[in-house]
């Protein structure tokens, strides 16, 4: 193993960023849909050895060549690793620019490259901070990188509205027993644990060999990682052994996945056909036989299911009313426009990406307006300025969408317990799922991943939504236009699901919630406590080392 480490530690010139970028790209195999997380036992040590190489170069002090400073060189290594990681993990965003290729395809290369480049800055900051904390051989630098990288991932999930997509901790959430650990540590806490688990075996082995230690001391990192990994698996297995509460009494739900191609969805000539297809699917059971939705309490359509403004379409509301039996309700994603008085300019149209509940006769019972909008998809930063020079977001909605009211309210449906609404990527933000003082009985996530085709994106989206169910101890009903729709219980199991581009319905009972797990009660304060303990441990280790070395 030592010769392999020396190869990476001796890399110079273009080879070092190329190695870091390739290692980052391969690391994505640890995430959905591959879950090949053992690759991180190789790629994270490569990252650390590349930082070793960057730090080892010695140059004369020269402030005019700041980029030759060891901290700057370490930041470059982290940036290239992060760029490879996010490029292969987020390449699928380019599919959205091909839906209307004649207008947006020219922007696709910029989006596919610029977003990973921007997100990689957080990893650059993490590696720079780790080196600035006195990068030393042995456990100290493993702990330093774990602390700084976990902190950077938390920042990535919060800065500029945040994008916690493919946080490194997701590597420790498969199979199902490991997934349960998110209920205790949260995804950022798992990121803090992932770095020592995956980096320690190879790095500690090589460090011990460099120091001439006996073979027994070289396996300490392997034993540490194996013990911690088995401990997490045991914790998850014990949680899975807890008895499941019975499903909610008397509630049957029908999830409708129409699988409408995104390119066809918003064409005016297709509006009526798409709406009728939703109605027809809603009248059929999961086996395909027509039942008129008899016995169904709640029918759920995906995000923006109706490609028109349903509240302005009396005929559509009447058709919905004819679909619903007494006591049944329809929940659908849809667009909504409201007029607001904005003095002194008078009225202004506000456009919302909403979730609407319809009851008897097609009457609107409840509505939720999305509060976490997608930058460049649902709105533009500096909207007026960028529109003035001809730019527009992918939805091509003039003026962009408006946010709903915060904190996120619960949606109440007569005869059903309150639900926590999540539209599209609102389901990827840990710690923000339940925002009020009242806990919902279940979560509802409507989305449209038809923008992204047959890529890894929809699989990653589904997996992250499953983790929110586990973290909160709440079942989730996930309904997607093109897939993947699923019934997810409070421990992340999926008894029913429909794959990408499948057209059909899921009929199911509604799984019950479990007692709020630690993460649901304390959120990221658990991560903050872990971060603090780790920082104290690093500081104490450094102090002991200094005293041992003497003056």
Explain how this protein is built.
With 551 residues, the protein is α/β, with parallel strands linked by helices. It has two domains: 2-242 and 523-549, no CATH class; 252-371 and 406-513, Nitrilase/N-carbamoyl-D-aminoacid amidohydrolase (4-Layer Sandwich), CATH 3.60.110. 45% of the residues lie in helices and 13% in strands. It contains 19 helices and eleven strands. The chain has helices spanning 2-9, 15-27, 40-56, 70-90, 93-96, 101-104, 108-132, 139-156, 176-179, 182-210, 215-218, 220-241, 262-265, 271-282, 314-323, 383-388, 457-472, 518-522, 525-549; strands at 252-257, 298-300, 329-341, 347-358, 364-369, 419-423, 442-447, 476-480, 485-488, 496-498, 504-509. The strands form two sheets. It has a six-stranded mixed beta sheet. It starts with a helix and ends with a helix. The mean pLDDT is 91.
Strand neighbour order, sheet with most strands: 5-4-3-2-1-11
Beginning-to-end CA distance, first to last residue: 35 Å
DSSP strand (E) fraction? 5-15%
Uncertain regions: pLDDT < 50 for 5+ in a row? Answer: none
Structural class: alpha/beta
Major beta-sheet overview: 6 strands, mixed
Average pLDDT, rounded to a whole number, is 91
Alpha-carbon Rg, integer: 26 Å
- Count of beta strands: 11
Number of helices: 19
**What is the overall silhouette?**
elongated
Proportion of helical residues: 40-55%
- The total tally of domains equals 2
Oligomer: single chain
H and E order: HHHHHHHHHHHHEHHEHEEEHEEHEEEEHH
């Amino acid at each position: 193993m030592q010769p392999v480490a020396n190869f990476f530690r001796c890399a110079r010139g273009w080879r070092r960023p190329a190695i870091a970028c390739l290692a980052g790209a391969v690391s994505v195999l640890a995430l959905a849909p591959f879950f090949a997380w053992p690759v991180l036992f190789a790629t994270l040590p490569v990252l650390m050895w590349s930082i070793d190489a960057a730090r080892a170069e010695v140059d004369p002090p020269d402030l005019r060549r700041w980029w030759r400073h060891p901290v700057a060189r370490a930041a470059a290594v982290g940036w290239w690793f992060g760029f490879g990681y996010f490029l292969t993990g987020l390449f699928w965003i380019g599919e959205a620019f091909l839906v209307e290729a004649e207008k947006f395809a020219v922007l696709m290369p910029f989006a596919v490259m610029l977003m990973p480049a921007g997100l990689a800055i957080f990893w650059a900051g993490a590696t720079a901070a780790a080196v600035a904390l006195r990068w030393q051989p042995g456990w100290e630098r493993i702990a330093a990188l774990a602390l700084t990288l976990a902190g950077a991932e938390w920042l990535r999930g919060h800065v500029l509205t945040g994008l916690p997509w493919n946080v490194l901790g997701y590597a420790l959430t498969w199979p199902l027993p490991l997934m349960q650990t998110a209920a205790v540590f949260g995804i950022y806490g798992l990121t803090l644990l992932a770095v020592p688990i995956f980096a320690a075996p190879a790095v500690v082995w090589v460090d011990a060999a460099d120091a001439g230690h006996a073979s027994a001391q070289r396996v300490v990192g392997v034993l540490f990682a194996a013990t911690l990994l088995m401990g997490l698996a045991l914790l998850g297995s014990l949680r899975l052994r807890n008895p499941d509460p019975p499903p909610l009494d008397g509630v049957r739900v029908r999830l409708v996945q129409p699988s409408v191609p995104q390119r066809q969805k918003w064409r005016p000539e297709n509006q009526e056909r798409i709406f009728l297809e939703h109605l027809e699917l809603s009248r059929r059971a999961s086996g395909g036989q027509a039942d008129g939705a008899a016995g169904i309490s709640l029918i759920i359509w995906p995000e923006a299911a109706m490609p028109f403004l349903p509240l302005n379409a009396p005929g559509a509301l009447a058709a919905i009313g004819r679909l619903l039996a007494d006591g049944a309700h329809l929940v659908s994603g849809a667009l909504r426009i409201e007029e607001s008085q904005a003095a002194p300019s008078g009225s202004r149209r506000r456009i919302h990406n909403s979730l609407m509940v319809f009851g008897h006769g097609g009457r609107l019972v409840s509505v939720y307006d999305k509060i976490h909008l997608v930058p460049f998809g649902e709105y533009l930063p500096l909207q007026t300025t960028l529109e003035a020079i001809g730019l527009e977001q992918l939805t091509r909605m003039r003026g962009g969408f408006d946010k709903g009211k915060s904190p996120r309210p619960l949606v109440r449906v007569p005869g059903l317990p309150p639900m926590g609404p999540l539209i599209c990527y609102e389901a990827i933000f840990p710690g923000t799922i339940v925002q009020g003082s009242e806990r919902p009985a279940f979560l509802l996530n409507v989305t449209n991943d038809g923008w992204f085709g047959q890529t890894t994106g929809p699989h990653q989206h589904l997996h992250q939504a499953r983790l929110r169910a586990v973290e909160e101890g709440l079942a989730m009903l996930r309904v997607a236009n093109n897939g993947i729709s699923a019934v997810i219980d409070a421990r992340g199991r999926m008894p029913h699901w429909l794959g990408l581009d499948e057209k059909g319905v899921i009929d199911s009972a509604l799984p019950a919630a479990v007692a709020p797990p630690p993460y649901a009660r304390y959120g990221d304060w658990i991560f903050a406590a872990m971060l603090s303990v780790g920082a104290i441990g690093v500081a104490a280790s450094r102090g002991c080392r200094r005293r041992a070395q003497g003056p």
